[in-house]
Amino acid sequence: MQKIAGDFTQLSLKFTLILSVFLIWLAACSSPPSFPSPDFSLNMSESSLNLEQGKSTELTISLESHTMLSVELTLADLPEGVTASFSQNPLTDSSVLSLNASTSASPGNHTLTLQAKAQGKEKTAQFSLEIQKATTPPIASFSLSASPTKLSLEQSGENLVSVTINLDEGFSGLVSLSAADLPEGVSAGFAPDKSADGSVLTLTALGTVVPGDYSIRLEGSAQGQTKSITVQLTITEKTSVNFSLALNPQSTTLGINSIKQVRLDVTPTGGFSESIRLNVDALPKGVTASFDPSLTTAQSTLSISADDTASPGVYQVIVRGKAGSLERTAQLSLTIEDNRPPDFKIFVAPSISIAQGFFGTLNLEVERIGGFSDIIQFSLEDAPAGVTGEFDFNVATFEGSLELLIASTVAEGNYTLKIVGKSGTLERSATFILIVTRAQLVEVTIVKPGDRFVANGPMQFEVRVNGRVPDMVTLVLPDMSIVSSNRAPYTFTWNPAADDVDGNYRFIARANFGSKVIESESVIVTLDRTAPTIVSQSPKAGATDVRLADKIEIKFSEALHTLPVFDDPNQKLDPYVRLTGAKNPNLNYTWEFNTAQDTITIKLKERPVLPDTLSIALHDIVDRGNNPTKVSNWSWQVPDWLEYKGMTSRIAYYPSLVLDKDGTPIVAIRLGGNDIAVLKYTSTGWIYLGGAEDNINVIESSYGYSPGLALDASGQPIVTWEEGVINPEVKYSSYAKRWTGSSWQLLGSLTGDDVKYNLEPSLVSDGKGNTYFAWRSGSSTVGNPDAQASVYVSRWNGTKMEQLGAVLTTSANGSTTTSIKLNQTGQPFVAFLGERIGSPRLFQVMRWGGTGTSTTGNWINVGNGVNINASHEAYNPSLAMLGDTPIVTWQENDGNNENIYVRRYESGWKGYDSDSPLDNFVPNPATNPSLALSISGPVINPDPLPLGFTQPAQVLTVTPTIAFIEKDGTSSKVIVKRKSSMQFGPWVQLGGPLNINSSDNAFAPSLAFDGATPVVAWVEGESIGKAKLHVARYNDF
User: Fold this and answer.
1) 726 and 799 assigned to the same domain
2) 393 and 468, same domain (yes or no)
3) Domain closes at, from 204, 238, 272
4) Largest distance between two CA atoms of the chain
5) Has residue 585 got a pLDDT over 60?
């Protein structure tokens, strides 16, 4: 008791303090307070909405105001097929606008206007609504809406909710209504509980209901579908301060285009004295209502009116009064009757579009007024010539249609037509615009199978019709109907008979629209019950000497079904086409079809290990009709080197090889014991330039030696050689001839200071009309052609032979065979052995120091001696030029053996990687090297630049390659080695040792390049005096 008394004392002191402060403030006020004028604004959660047919969406509306306002909301410009409801109307704080689109709502963009009114002020706000076509065919259904969606209910009280049922087009039947999730002590009753339009929900609370906020669910069920909405319910404590509403009368009848007034009485209890805000829920379409006054403490007049859009019937209207947290309702039973004289109105769509030669249907509706039920006679007026119409009208439902038939002669354009309805003395009309469009708007297409489809049995067809729904679709062969269908999808099956022959069959589809028939484009399908066969194959089965560059190709008797491509490069076409090698089981290759799909081409991507036997196996390949080929496989031989067949069988010595611009080999050769001849390979074999086994020697009875060969600017061969006679005295002369295309033209002899001994000439052409010759000249005074030999260089300028400068070298011990090449500016370089015996035995390279076409100048040494050991003999030099860099290979005798070496000049003579011999079996002799450069590319901006190049733009892929003779223990063979890169990497042997008969000996190889592919000429036999000429090409891509 003491604690209670203490708390009460503190509360009294606090109240006294607050009251004192209030009295002081009141006394300080010298004027009455001013209140802001009533004003408000609206905020919307979205400025645009998307709404799909058959679905709903929501928009939240918020009220901003400095005063307590109640704002009446209306929505204008609502498109047909869309309904709207507010969760709170009038609006005091916020309301949710629910929009529902029926399945028949027209897709498009619409601008809706929200109107708000309060105490003489009016505000509007707009938002856009896009109605979208249903993504899936909508199912006719229904939806529910409630007003209000948020309400309060006092203990021991009741409240009403108006429930509206919105039916989609095509949905019929009654919807059963129920309430769920009700708080304990609250009951719900629908009147009626089954309806097709709406119902009034009465919520009743016992005095024991716990106050608080609850969500109740209103459900509707019909035709296996259930829809629900949520209503927010607030339970408040029972208070003695209260009021009730009463309508007088509680039911009334309202005519169309008339107004009625109903008195509303307010009965306060428990000292209630607040103003009550009044509004109306669940007004039917075309009915409006207003209170005067809308804010009252005792009484108000409800004015209710119906315009001519209102539908006759009985409706339950809810009158709602709200004061603070108190909310009371009253229900008015409103009967709307049509008190107008009997009449009718005609409604049609504003326009219809029909193509020339087709018909269209215009829906027709009649609104009955004042109980009109008589028969109406319809007619069509103002129709242009060629347009006729036929009416079909149901007098029970007062709905019908007008079928319009447009002749193909009616011009395109817009026409205004009138539908006239007459019944007794009444005559009403409606107009619409007929849009006549160009014919062929309807399209009939055979979409399956595609044109040129091939099958070996039954075929499935599918026809698509765009633009209109046909009465019938027929798939036909000429003069023969297959099957007809009057429903989509239009699918058909053709089962070929056993006696139907293979070949093409032409199908068309026909769509019937009344008497109008439209045909599709024809589709040709192929009946193919014949298995494909292989028409040709390359290489042939059992073929030998097959080039890697040749296509591997299989041609079939007809187009094949497309084969899948496998990701594994070793499984291309497998298991359909499989390419393998006896030494290379997993070949890397690609394949492709030709345009006609009847040929498969296979290409190797890498050079396999050769020689090898390659094989193809075919499995499970089918044609477009799914007919399988027979299992087939075959193989062929792929050698390392491909020999040019048909060579002469005469004894041959010392070949010199060049290739023309087409890669055709030309060989200068000593045949038999005497003759110098030049042979060229053709499509029919080897031919002699100048006639059969033509001897081009200057002196017919002389002995020819050491031929050399080059091509001039026109691509014709120039040959040089050494020619010896013994009568009346021993004499050696060197000559040069040029092939004119029909005969050999003598360019002259190569003569040094001594006319008696001029031997072992070499040559090079600059491709501009100049050909350079190098040779050695011996001393006739000594009487030995090998003693005191000197080296000379002359130039043939197209008209005469002229010596370049003085002698390159004079040696008492003799000089050896020369090799001459040009740098990139056309300056000649010569390689030769300056001393044959004695020491040092310098192997030298010299370059011409003259300029232009001058024959005066000096020969300049390129470095010192080239050979590995100056005391060793060096023979058979072969020179090549990479830009300005000379590269030379030669044979050097160390006293025990002959080996092959190669060096380049780079501020001195240097070996590649090392100065090790190139030969494989160093103890065995290696002789007669021939050096050439393979060229492929270009390579862009290499780093570092290859030797001899200073500008990246000059750079090609250039690799030195050397052919030489090496004895492997049983016989001498040609070995070809290529540098794996210009400056780095090992020397790689190309293929195996090259000789035709493994027991014979090979001699004197000559190497040339067709791009990057080496070609070698050599002679082969038991001995040098029994050897025969051979030419072979490296088998590469």
Assistant:
1) yes
2) no
3) 238
4) 167
5) yes
Please state, in angstroms and rounded to a whole number, the distance separating the CA atoms of residues 442 and 516. 11
Q: Which alpha helices (H) appear in 901-953, and where do they start and end?
A: none
Does residue 97 belong to any structural domain of this protein?
yes
CA dihedral sign, ordered 538, 543, 548, 549: negative
Convert the pLDDT of each residue in 372-410 to its tens digit: 889 999 999 999 999 999 999 888 788 889 999 888 899
Q: List b or e across 124-162, with b for residues whose CB sees 16 or more CB atoms inside 10 angstroms.
A: eeebebebeeeeeebebbbbbbbbbbbbbbbbebebbbb
In this structure, the answer to whether residues 754 and 839 fall within a common structural domain is: yes
pLDDT in tens, 323-344: 988 889 999 999 998 888 899 9
Residues 349 and 380 in one domain: yes
pLDDT at residue 368, rounded to an integer: 86
3-state secondary structure of 22: helix
CATH number of the CATH domain containing 177: 2.60.40.10
Kindly state whether residues 748 and 859 are assigned to the same domain.
yes
* Nearest 10 degrees: Cα torsion 162, 167, 168, 174: 150
Position 404 in a domain: yes
Distances (CA, A) of 128 to 44, 59, 113, 965, 996: 12, 11, 9, 93, 91
Highest averaged pLDDT of the listed ranges 103-107, 138-142, 365-369, 743-747: 743-747
Which position has the token pair 């290739």?
A: 659
Is the confidence at residue 285, as pLDDT, over 70?
Answer: yes
Residue with tokens 């004295």: 273
The CA angle 758-761-765, to the nearest 5 degrees, is 140
Q: Which of 280, 142, 158 is nearest to 219 (CA)?
A: 142
Q: Of 238, 272, 305, which residue sits at a domain end?
A: 238
Question: Total domain count for the chain?
Answer: 8
DSSP states along 532-583: --EEEEESPTT--S--TTS-EEEEESSPBPPPP--SSGGGTTTTTEEEEESS
Which residues, 6 or more positions from 478, have their beta carbon under 8 angstroms from its beta carbon? 506
Q: Domain of 778: which CATH number? A: 2.120.10.10
* Alpha carbon distance 740, 716 (integer Å): 7
Query: H or E element: which one contains 418?
Result: strand 413-423
Cβ of 198: how many Cβ atoms within 10 Å?
Answer: 21
State the pTM of this model: 0.55
Domain that includes residue 838, residue range = 705-865
Asked if the model's pLDDT at residue 944 lies above 50, the reply is: no
Measured CA to CA, the distance from residue 210 to residue 153 in angstroms comes to 11
pLDDT tens, residue by residue, 429-474:
999 999 998 876 678 898 888 777 888 888 888 998 887 778 888 8
Pair 232, 243 in one domain: no
Alpha-carbon span 721 to 676, nearest angstrom? 8
- Please, which pLDDT band fits residue 135 given cuts at 50, 70 and 90? low
How far apart are the C-alpha atoms of 643 and 612, rounded to whole Å? 16
* Predicted local confidence at residue 68, as pLDDT: 57
Beta-strand runs (E) in 953-993: 957-967, 972-979, 987-989
Question: Whats the size of the chain, residue-wise?
Answer: 1037
| Residue located via tokens 């780095």 | 984
193 φ, ψ (degrees, to nearest 5): -90, -5
For 555-583, how does the pLDDT look when each residue is reduced to its tens digit (9 = 90+)? 999 888 866 544 444 444 555 788 999 99
469 in the same domain as 547: no
Q: Are 634 and 614 in contact (CB under 8 A)?
A: no
Please, are residues 762 and 820 in contact by the beta-carbon 8 Å criterion?
A: yes
User: In angstroms, rounded to a whole number, what is the distance separating the alpha carbons of residues 33 and 563?
Assistant: 94
Q: Flag whether 427 is in a domain.
A: yes
Question: Looking at the structure, do residues 633 and 646 belong to the same domain, yes or no?
Answer: no
Residue 777 in 3-state DSSP? strand
On whether residue 888 sits in a domain, the answer given is: no
Spatial separation of the C-alpha atoms in residues 486 and 475, rounded to whole Å:
12
